[in-house]
């Protein structure tokens, strides 16, 4: 029902993640950056809002000769002056500054789990860092998949599958493990009820009334 892949691994976060002030300072052209979520802590609710995105991702797929006269080219040169192009992950790319093309996933899940594994959603999609796993699922079933994935049943499956090998008991769950998680078949759920349960949902803590509402749909 979905393809799972890791969020962007940049190899040089200082270069690729830009706040608005930095973009204004360099006057980087709008075509070369997209909003991105770096950390699950930036998501105030399950439904991600544009206001949640504090950073932008530098996305440039052009050769240097195509960038002549742009601020983006000057920014790339500045990155090379700092040696970013020599870092292992960057050096392995044909163009070290090009993170590649991929669709914006409509759902992303936190890679390291404290108490709750949260599947965040945004109908028009959003890019994320490698603190997330991307969930690429058919738009027609977005709300049903999101309810099934955020249910307490999946919390149980995730805790059985993951491994608590990080500080303070954080659970790590790899891309292939997320890919293998079992969900209640999303098409068994009612789209309207699913959407209503998530549109105003907060962070679905285990004791939240929002979680009770969502779980009742699944149960």
Explain how this protein is built.
With 219 residues, this protein is α+β, with helices and mostly antiparallel strands. It is built from nine helices and ten strands. It has helices at residues 13-16, 20-26, 71-81, 88-91, 142-150, 152-161, 175-179, 191-199, 209-218; strands at 3-6, 17-18, 33-37, 55-58, 107-110, 112-113, 119-121, 127-128, 132-136, 171-172. The chain has a four-stranded antiparallel beta sheet. A four-stranded mixed beta sheet has the order 2-4-3-8. The chain has a two-stranded antiparallel ribbon with strand order 6-10. It is elongated, with a radius of gyration of 19 Å.
Strand order across the largest sheet: 1-9-5-7
Characterize the largest beta sheet: strand count, sense, and whether it forms a barrel.
4 strands, antiparallel
So how many helices? Answer: 9
Low-confidence runs of at least 5 consecutive residues: none
> Pairing-aware structural class of the strands and helices?
alpha+beta
Which percent range fits the helix content? 25-40%
* Basic shape: elongated
Q: What proportion strand?
A: 15-25%
Mean pLDDT: 93
Q: How far apart lie the N and C ends?
A: 20 Å
DSSP summary, beta strand count: 10
Order of helices and strands: EHEHEEHHEEEEEHHEHHH
Tell me the Rg in angstroms: 19 Å
Please give the structural blueprint:
Blueprint: E1 3-6, H1 13-16, E2 17-18, H2 20-26, E3 33-37, E4 55-58, H3 71-81, H4 88-91, E5 107-110, E6 112-113, E7 119-121, E8 127-128, E9 132-136, H5 142-150, H6 152-161, E10 171-172, H7 175-179, H8 191-199, H9 209-218
Parallel strand pairs: 3-8
Antiparallel strand pairs: 1-9, 2-4, 3-4, 5-7, 5-9, 6-10
Helix pairs in contact: 5-8, 8-9
């Amino acid at each position: 029902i979905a393809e799972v892949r890791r969020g962007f691994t940049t190899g040089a976060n200082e270069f690729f993640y830009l706040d608005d002030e930095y973009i204004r300072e360099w006057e980087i052209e709008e075509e070369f950056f997209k909003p991105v979520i770096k950390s699950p802590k930036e998501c105030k609710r399950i439904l991600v809002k544009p206001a949640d995105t504090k950073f932008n991702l530098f996305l440039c797929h052009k050769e240097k000769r195509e960038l002549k006269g742009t601020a983006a080219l000057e920014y790339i040169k500045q990155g090379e002056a700092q040696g970013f192009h020599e870092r292992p992950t960057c050096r392995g790319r044909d163009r070290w500054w090009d993170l590649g093309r991929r669709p914006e996933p409509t759902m992303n899940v936190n890679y390291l789990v404290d108490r709750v594994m949260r599947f965040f959603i945004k109908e028009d999609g959003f890019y994320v860092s490698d603190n997330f796993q991307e969930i690429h699922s058919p738009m027609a079933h977005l709300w049903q998949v999101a309810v099934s994935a955020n249910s307490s049943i999946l919390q149980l499956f995730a805790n059985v599958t993951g491994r608590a090998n990080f500080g303070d008991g954080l659970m790590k769950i790899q891309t292939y493990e997320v890919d293998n998680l079992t969900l209640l078949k999303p098409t068994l759920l009612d789209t309207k009820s699913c959407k209503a349960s998530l549109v105003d949902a907060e962070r679905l803590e285990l004791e939240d009334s929002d979680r009770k509402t969502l779980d009742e749909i699944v149960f």
